[in-house]
Amino acid sequence: MISRSWTSVQSVNSRRLAIVLIWLVFLSAGLYVVVARTPVEGDLTAFLPRFGTTGGGVLLEGLQTGPASRLVLIALQGESEAVGAALSKRLADTLRANQLFLYVANGQSLLSDAERLWLVKYRYLLSPKEGADRFSAPALRAVLKRRLRELASPVSVFGKQWLPLDPTGEMRAIAEAWQGTEKAERRHGVWFSPDGKRALLLAETRAAGFDVDAQREAVEAIRHAFVAGRERLGTDADVELLISGPAVFATDAKERMQAETQLLAVIACGVVMVLISSAYRSARILLLSALPLASAVVMAVASVGLTFSSIHGITLAFGVTLVGVAIDYPIHLFSHLHRAEKVVHTLHRIWPTLGLGAVTSAIGYLGLATSDFPGLIQLGVFAVVGLLTAAVFTGWVLPALLPEYWAPGNEDHPSAVRLLSHIPTGRTMKGATIVVGLGLLAAMLTVIPPKWEEDLAALSPVPPASLALDRQLRSELGAPEVTHVIVVQDREAEGVLLAIEKLTPRLQSLVSAGLIDTFDAPTQYLPSMARQRARQKGLPQRGDLQENLLQALAGLPFKRTVFRPFLDGVEESRGLSPLGPEDLADTMLGLRMSSTLYRKDGAWIGLVLLSGVTNHKEVARWFSVQDLGAAHYVNIKVEMDRLVANYRNEALKRLAWGAGVILVVLWLGLRSPGRVFRVVLPVALAIVVDVFVLTALGKQLSLFHLVSLLLVVGIGLDYSLFFSRPDDELLIRGRTLHAVLVCAGSTVAVFGILALSEIPVLDAIGTTVAIGVAASLITASILAPDPSAVDSRTRSGWPDPSGVRAQDGMPSAPSPADDAHATPADHRLHSR
Description:
Radius of gyration: 37 Å
Number of strands: 15
Distance between the termini: 25 Å
Strand content: 5-15%
Shape: elongated
CATH class of the domain at 22-48 and 281-411: Mainly Alpha
Largest sheet: 5 strands, antiparallel
């Protein structure tokens, strides 16, 4: 018999060793994928929706990665204009030499000598001046007289060097057209705010604005250049660096969220450790509780890495939070353990409930994997794989890490048993709970209906002070706020430019009517080729122009030969090939124009930015009655609100389908419509309570509340499933209550800490889950079947799977028959 027992022990140990080795192999493979093949990305566009191919969709997608998202507004604030100007010039020179930036403007001339000569060459094709009559003898004579007056003025705005080449002022007309949208004042040769306290700069990065890692590098480069510039100037003046723009917002938001989540995670981990330690008084349990969660995170990250080749930082942060519920699985096992029952027997007894809870929670997260947000798809995959991994670890690996017979020191959980006896679970209390839930639902349907948050700005982690600074700097620089935009899309750049030129007179009428202050269009920098050819046709033949010039010079103090460069320039312009966007590549003009005309996915997109909109409703009405052809007017805020509302509705539909699948799985697992109803009812009431409390607190529900309610459903089903089990003793029901109390306590503590965050998204998740889990615990415990009812079934012949006999709510000692078959190790465990 001893030999047979020893062989049995060896077999058990071999099986355990094999399970642990298999787990280590899978964990090692997962760690390899995490380290070697899963880089963490920071592009925030992963958490923005796919916008489609409409005018608004194209524009919004373009704004995510286009030039508008790459602008950085810079201000040097101080009392000395001279110091600010000198620092501005040095900072601009440093940043222009940095490959992180496409261009840096501060009011100085950005054109190289070669580009300036090239611009002079094409002046007659780019100049907004049109009409052949401006080259007639009377028109030329009037222009030359004006040049004489300007040259005689002590504050001449027309340099002598330009007179022989450009007496008609084409270059000045080009400059005025380009500076039409610039509002910044020039002092000491650079841009300043009107009060002279801020030197202003505008930079455009090479990386897209939502590529947070690249933008962080660019922002740090600006800060380092500022510090180095101050040191090289050797000034003690108090100058402050101010930076704003989409790139800065994305960088600051990520850093702020990371800092807060890390701090809150440390606090939450400490609270959970204290709760588990006080609940079980076992260092072994404290260590083993972390293993399923660690395994879940590794395999979840690896699965996302294999599926998407990378993982987003937000997916990682929120994913760990979502699968944090996985710690509930080992807690359920630990609370149900008893030294008189094998660990595997305890696991077999609770596994149907535990496994069903894990599957239903995973099904709920499948809705995220079908969303229009690439980041949420990652989050759905992360959560599903993580939850299932934790459940598998608890079911197969964790028993192999425990002795065959083992339980924590306070295995009977007398305090939970006493608490259970005081929970009012009679029919009156059950009925009152249901009535209260239905009353709250009726109130939300009639009196205080929940409101949906459709303004993404309300969820922005950017502080109001930063947004106010951005608005002020944009106003001082004349940089347009990309809110009201006309978007034009065509297969060719020429088609885009032609459509904008056709629209320009109508936009001028909006300016005249006072509905907008101005507009910025790519045609201000580059006319269409058709327009350039038309201007060429308006240029006179050299002989005709020379004759008109001679008539205009009669009686004027100019030498007849001084304007030969003018005659040569007009003649040369007649034979030039019209310019296209590709001709401006890698020039400052091309870089400047790239913010309003760019190529994306095989099509050209042109943007006309409207500034100073005084009445957005009237502007929208005006555009609604216009035939814009290939152009589309887009109010960014309205378009974003519409897209968010559409996505919310789609998310609700997916969640409804997910709920239906969960009901089917529950029916297949429980095989009892009555028990399915008893399981679902507490969760439904908890969701009603959660939404009601959020509404009463003045919260407007967002997409993040929906995701959080999904987590509440998963946790609530877990609690409800365990409370609805046909437990055969009050003691075992007390163990269930102990497990649920520890799970709920840790979850409420973690998410309650998260609710303290000042970041709206973290606050939404933390508040929703903390309230929902507390409500789930209360409703599930009150609506649970009466333990006395199931005790009668035990007395009538139901087996006692735990191997203990209930007497006054306490277990009896192991029987001699049990001891006769126990191993020496078992005796040592029993005598603990």
